[in-house]
Amino acid sequence: MLWYAIKLLVLLPLIGLLAWGCLVLARRVQDGAGRNGGSRSLRVVETMMLSPTQRLAVIAFHDREILVAATRQGLTRLAEAPARQDFAEIAAETPEP
What we know:
By secondary structure, the protein is of the alpha+beta class. The protein contains 2 helices and 4 strands. Strands 1-2-3-4 form a 4-stranded antiparallel β-sheet, with no helix packed on it. The chain is elongated.
């Protein structure tokens, strides 16, 4: 019984540390994968979950914003509009009182 308690006290923190390290490593790999040297012509602006199987997404592509519905069956384009300005540009244009 004593041997079991010693193994538990040693291995449980070790397993927790390994799990935490895997999560940190996965986050770094995902952050690094999103950066490529050039400018990106496609980006997901916003998503909204409608149900567990349905999602709405706004995709920016070549100065256009496309509203897409994503389901298990595939993607459906719902609407398209000119791209909005970035929030930083809008804030710079508005005069302060």
